[in-house]
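Let's sit down with a protein and look at its sequence and fold side by side. We need material for that, and I hope you will provide a protein of your own picking. Once you have written the record down, we can walk along the chain together.

***
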Amino acid sequence: MKTPFHRLKKMAHRLTLFDWGLWFGGGIFCLVEAIRTSNGMMGALALLLLTPGIAQFTGHRWAWHAGIGSFSICGVWLAYMRLQKPFTILTGALIVVSIWAIWQHWTERATIAELLRESNEAISDGDDADGDEPPENSLVLWLKGPRFLDAGILSRHAEQAFGVSFGESEDADGFVVGKENHYILKLGECWFIIHYRESNYFEEPEAVAKEMKELRRANIVRQHEAWLSVDYLRGPDNANSDEIMGKIRSMVSELASADDVLALYHPNTRRIAPWSDEVKSMITSRSTEDIFEIKAYVPVIRVEGDSEKMAAAVAEARRHWPEFVAAFHASVERDGFSVKAPVTEAGNTEFIWISVRAISDGQIHGFLANDPVALGTLKIGAFVSVSEADMNDWCYPSAEKADRPRGLFTLSAFR
């Protein structure tokens, strides 16, 4: 659980040293002067400086515009002072500092625009995530909801990911610049684009979800409300694709350190890996292909209700049900005795495997053997009871063939 101290530390990282000096240093100085001299204009100036600083500290997206507004008002006020009152050293210092601050504040976006022009990459808010030509080297994190990002936060993530310094100094090994939806990350000779959107990755998520046979992944397609991607932009002619993806995975691993990740998506192959501790632990140590081969969850497959093969398989399982009951009661070691049956919770019903612990009075009692897709508060390991009449498949260890359990009648229907 994150303490208030950790939250304050994360908020403090949203401001650079320049921001702290300008907004809070300048604002507090003006506030002290206003109190000391009872000068209302200095109090107003303190408010103009502190407002953008507080907005940036708390993560509001209008912070940059608040800064421009404050600079504009200060500029008018300083011009008035210069025309109406005698010139003082303090007035001259404020004019110099204001001009420098405006230049620093404004040129950050100009730098970004120049980098985008140099990269020859058309980036706009109208980019279509469902495009027919996805980036060859890219990974996407699907998020539960919006999160705050800025260039400073991404720079610190990059430093952790690559173990080198990021910043504006000449000694820095890379830098991150950008605003709101798009950021440029430069590491050595390699350039990457980081996209961030507070929306579903697909324009029509419901249509995409309906095309998917695996219900867990279909549910993730519907559920995610924001996404964050790292795409390779350009680099040396001899750049190796595996090395590039390794860098992308390192950065994605750092970006996934929060608890708001639902899945990892590979645009080039259109594969989805539901987020899990196993995916998280393998993302920097294994290849991209290996990550998407992880079977962290039992697949939940959509089957049409009128499937003749499925109906025949269920009938066969029920016909042989006495065999399972006899073997269960005769066995001392009951691990591996499982049934598949419908479980209803929170208005949803899923056919799910249950690890059997008791059978009595027409009821099967046990624990959920895999994680449900959408059964409210029920999770893997939850205790449930179902009717024997509703059971539609079963399995238990075979004494003759250890690698081939008895039962699994519906498996052939799925195949």
Summary: Residues 297 and 370 are 7 Å apart (CA to CA). The chain has 14 helices and 13 strands.
